[in-house]
């Protein structure tokens, strides 16, 4: 009875979370909601440094910052922390963890063992010390079992749930560094219009921001912007990290990254969020051309959907690389097989064990959330935050306004440094003819649907 009491009482003192959750075990994982709207599933394991660590399937443990949780789940996290801290009352001694009442139980157990030894003597105490062989064996067995029990309890408390201690590090998946020749091979077909180089950290892409296909045709919601060359070179080149690292929580493009690029196409053109800076699907509201692109306020051409047409040139190679380092493929797997189911980030782990995204004709088109860790520009805030490093530009001319009812009907090159864009409002035509010289002087001739022409020049 005494032994049963000890076992039961010690179990309470050393209560701790543990175990792993495997697919097929019908384990229900708790749902945690972030301020960003994202959902993370996992069961509370321990806490440290204002983070909770959630255990997912197959023993994967991920950290989540408490301040990133919504108000309700912050309260739940603090409740869990306080609950497990109370259950796991611990003290530290030479980096080992023991229950606060352990010494009491050791002394009590020694007393119990002594009594058991004495009552199993074959003859009275101090007269003959010979033990009955069966009782001797039982006593030794008890001592062995008790030692194992104490050792086990000491082991189970080596990862406490108190926030004041230092538990073992959570499991991290190490991703192999990306082979630069693999990345470079995806851009090869578009050289020399673009150029590439790399160092130990990044793969760099230089381009002038003008693709080798027509642009602007098909836009029915036009801001009167037109594509001009951009200084994406030197220290202002696009940069793809060579060592991707999984983010603890993928950064959703529904509530983030509505400014700047999230990926770079293999023809050197940046790919922006499917949503514009007003949170609208650019494709669905008619802002994009036949190739999935349009121009921003700096007359900078970029895509908002997947440039799937690049697969006609690149075959089964990537059509882009995200700014977190992971490749973007077309509608086929890298081996040519049918694309398998995509996760909420719009990708999945390939047969090589490395994550990749896919371009599709449906929202979110390219990236639903950045799977890898990225650095955000501290000067920006969600939803109009952006990844750094990335290439930047600035306007040559003042920002233009939407031209209601205008549909772009044609776009052709004029000479080597100019274009003619034609649009229609109702049955009337208008145009923008523009060019630039070797000194980066830009000239725009705007002709409205009444035939009135206005000429303006700007120096970059």
Structure summarized in a few sentences:
With 460 residues, the protein is α+β, with helices and mostly antiparallel strands. It is built from six helices and 27 strands.
Description:
- With 460 residues, the chain is α+β, with helices and mostly antiparallel strands.
- It folds into 3 domains: 17-87, SLA1 homology domain 1 (SH3 type barrels); 180-398, no CATH class; 403-460, no CATH class.
- The protein is built from 6 helices and 27 strands.
- It has a 6-stranded mixed β-sheet, with no helix packed on it.
- β26 (441-447) and β27 form a beta hairpin.
- α1 runs antiparallel to α3 (102-119).
- The termini are far apart.
- The model is unreliable at 1-19, 87-102, 125-129 and 150-170 (pLDDT under 50).
Defining key terms:
single chain; 460 residues; alpha+beta; SH3 type barrels; six-stranded mixed sheet; five-stranded antiparallel sheet; 18% helix; disordered N terminus
Could you give the topology of this structure?
Elements: H1 2-13, E1 31-33, E2 39-41, E3 43-48, E4 51-55, E5 61-65, H2 71-87, E6 90-93, E7 96-99, H3 102-119, H4 133-156, H5 180-187, E8 195-198, E9 202-206, E10 238-241, E11 246-252, E12 261-265, E13 270-272, E14 293-295, E15 301-303, H6 311-314, E16 320-322, E17 327-329, E18 347-349, E19 355-358, E20 369-372, E21 375-376, E22 387-388, E23 407-413, E24 418-425, E25 428-436, E26 441-447, E27 453-459
Parallel strand pairs: 17-19
Antiparallel strand pairs: 1-2, 3-4, 4-5, 6-7, 8-9, 9-10, 11-20, 12-13, 12-16, 14-15, 16-17, 18-19, 21-22, 23-24, 24-25, 25-26, 26-27
Helix pairs in contact: 1-3
């Amino acid at each position: 009875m005494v032994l049963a009491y000890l076992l039961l009482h010690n179990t309470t003192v050393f209560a701790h979370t543990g175990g792993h959750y495997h697919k097929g075990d019908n384990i229900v994982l708790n749902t945690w909601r972030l301020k960003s709207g994202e959902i993370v599933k996992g069961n509370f394991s321990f806490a440290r440094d204002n983070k909770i660590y959630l255990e997912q399937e197959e023993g994967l443990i991920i950290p989540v910052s408490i301040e990133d949780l919504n108000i309700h789940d912050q309260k739940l996290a603090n409740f869990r922390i306080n609950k497990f801290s109370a259950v796991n009352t611990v003290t530290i001694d030479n980096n080992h963890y023991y229950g606060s009442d352990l010494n009491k139980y050791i002394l009590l157990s020694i007393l119990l063992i002594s009594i058991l030894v004495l009552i199993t003597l074959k003859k009275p105490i101090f007269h003959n010390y010979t033990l009955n062989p069966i009782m001797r064996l039982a006593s030794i067995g008890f001592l062995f079992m008790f030692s194992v029990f104490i050792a086990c309890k000491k082991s189970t408390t080596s990862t406490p749930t108190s926030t004041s201690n230092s538990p073992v590090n959570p499991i991290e998946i190490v991703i192999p560094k990306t082979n630069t020749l693999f990345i470079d091979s995806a851009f090869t077909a578009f050289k020399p219009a673009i150029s590439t180089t790399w160092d130990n950290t990044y793969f760099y892409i230089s381009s002038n921001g003008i693709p080798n296909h027509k642009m602007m045709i098909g836009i029915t919601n036009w801001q009167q912007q037109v594509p001009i060359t951009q200084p994406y070179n030197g220290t202002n080149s696009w940069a793809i990290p060579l060592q991707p690292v999984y983010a603890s929580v993928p950064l959703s493009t529904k509530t983030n990254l509505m400014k700047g690029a999230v990926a770079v196409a293999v023809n050197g053109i940046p790919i922006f969020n499917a949503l514009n800076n007003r949170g609208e699907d650019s494709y669905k509201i008619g802002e994009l051309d036949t190739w999935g692109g349009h121009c921003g306020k700096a007359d900078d051409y970029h895509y908002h959907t997947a440039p799937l047409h690049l697969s006609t040139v690149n075959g089964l190679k990537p059509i882009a690389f995200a700014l977190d380092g992971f490749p973007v493929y077309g509608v086929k797997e890298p081996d040519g097989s049918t694309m398998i189911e995509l996760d909420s980030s719009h990708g999945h782990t390939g047969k090589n064990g490395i994550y990749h995204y896919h371009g599709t004709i449906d929202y979110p088109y390219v990236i639903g959330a950045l799977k890898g860790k990225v650095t955000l520009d501290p000067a920006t805030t969600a939803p109009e935050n952006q990844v750094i490093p990335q290439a930047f530009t600035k306007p040559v001319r003042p920002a233009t306004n939407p031209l209601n009812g205008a549909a772009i009907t044609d776009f052709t090159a004029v000479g080597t440094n100019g274009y003619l864009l034609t649009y229609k409002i109702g049955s009337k035509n208008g145009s923008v003819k523009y060019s630039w010289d070797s000194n980066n002087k830009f000239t725009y001739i705007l002709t409205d649907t009444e035939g009135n022409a206005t000429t303006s020049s700007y120096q970059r």
